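User: I'm curious what two different proteins look like when written out as structure tokens. Can you demonstrate?

Assistant: Sure. I'll show them one after the other, since each token string lines up with its own sequence. Here's the first protein:
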Amino acid sequence: MDLTDVDDLKVAMRLAGLKAQKTLGQHFLVDNDSLEAVMQAGELNSDDVVLEIGPGLGVMTAPLAAQVKSLVAVEMDQDLATLLERDKPVNLDVRQADIISFDLTSLPSSYKVVANIPYYLTSKIFRLLLESSNPPAIMSLLIQKEVAQRIVARPGQMSVLAFSVQYYGAPTLVRIVERHKFWPPPKVDSAILQVKVYDQPAFNADRDKLFRLVKAGFGEKRKMLKNSLAGGLNLEMALAERLLKEAKIKPTARAQELDMRAWQRLYDIALKYEII
């Protein structure tokens, strides 16, 4: 049975007594080329340990397991997890669990993540993976197209989300996957996003203090950065202007224009003045 064929997928669901749970963001990929592209973006080899999030019916699970040393599939839906246990390959470890509470430290270092993740959990999953004490080496994720485009943005179009990912790794939009390549089809198109995670973040920083600064900077999207910082950090305007001047950032700059080096300079100056 070919689970990338919609008719076969419907038969498999019916035989198993299952229905797609929209509340769990279940949209099954039914395009073989896109499936191959997701796996290729993981840059897999036979020594890899891979985490698959939300494997569903397992359309990608068996092909993944065939390419790697070990595959850990975390599935929240009990019925689907039970189905995945049937006739599973010896190197597949199925965990019935919520990925948000999953212990990533149970995985070996340099593991990889390959997954078609639920849209509604995208931000939480990125935060879980990237901020973990045991982050993956590479992530290949099928996510909402607009979110992927925001993540790979360059200075001029940056956002808190783009900074949050690019601080930890290098993202690449691999390809667009149109909505008709899923069943049931979602309301928006998707994209394959690869993130190669750095051994260390882009620069040394106290994470809470750094993101307090960044969120303040992006807090007033249409305002100049000095105004956003003054409002978000409760600063006198003169001090906000001094921060930018010492960080060698033009006084009319907006948060979305800053690159990672500019944020590093601003962070260092903000620390010096003990405002974060």
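Here's a second, unrelated protein for contrast:
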Amino acid sequence: MMANPEAVILGGGPAGATAALLLARAGVSVALLEKKSFPRPKVCGEYISATTLPLLDHAGVGHEFRANAGPEVARVGLFAGRATLHAGLPKPDGPCWGQALGRERLDTLLLDAAVRAGAEVLQPCSVTDLSRERDRFCVRAISRTNRAGFAIRSNVVIAAHGSWDAGTLPTQPVRRRPRPNDLLGFKAHFVNSDLPSGLMPLLAFPGGYGGMVHCDGGRVSLSCCIRRDWLSLLHARRGGDAGEAVLAHIIESCRGVRESLRAAVRQGPWLAAGPIRPGIRVRECGGLFRVGNAAGEAHPAVAEGISMAMQSSWLLVERLRQWKEHGGDVRQLDRVNAAYSADWRRCFAPRIKASSMIAHWAMRKDAVAAILPLLRCFPGLLTWGARMSGKARRVVRAD
């Protein structure tokens, strides 16, 4: 095990793996702790915007990503009631469009690249405590393989563990009582779908919203969020598997989904997680940094989760790289965190606000019905909405 690395990362998803890879390439000794064994599935929309492709190229995995991901996504759509509307996505800054890749493949791809760059990965292990000891942090963890406990000390800790799991770490949400308006996430893959290639529609239905996109292996990923009270109502009415009850509700509410999945077959089980926690959580706290959903989360309605996670890690590593080049004085970490937090808010706060407006509109049948006539006359408004969600804003400047 690496003795007292310069940085410790908690979580090996896209945000954590990207941070580990970029830090290792910058000459920083880094240890990453991940609680799950890879590959593993994950509730996620699986789409990566074109604005993140330069980062994948910079990380050395762009070619492999493009070779394995689904077809390029050049059109956005809306499936709501009987309406099936399409429009072009905003033109990306580059020759390629965004694509989708299953999380079981994407996460493994990124983490393997981090290991090749020199990061040490401790997996699977559970972090049990994070505390400060003078000017350093102490991370205590337990291996899930042999139940052995260990501790790692470092001046820099990066929380990349997401936001859905409650816990005792200072960067984790506290457990709270279930609420009727909690949004719970579901995802499944389908084969033999009739969803047009290159189209990524927003699914608007009472009590929730979702999306569909072609990913790897000829599969279509359908992911959605639904309010807890609506899920309870559907489960009581239909019984059986919760995921199938949600799917039946979506098919009943959206003609576009009904037509896209009429001959499709689900591949694998439904996955469920949540409640999701949209909002801004980035904090200025010395050498303790947050990336990915731990820093802030947009409603999945805008399909920007993976892109924001990876881009936030690039923003942080750029600040830490400059800090190290100027001597790496631990007394300056407060300033590093303040600068990173300002960068994060400038780049992502508008996306989070836009996603909230889109999500709450999509969940209300009356609100959707009121706007549909306008969208039918001016489908380019879908393009404008995609631009507002960050589809054309380039954050990463890496060659």
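A detail about the second structure: The chain has a mean pLDDT of 93.
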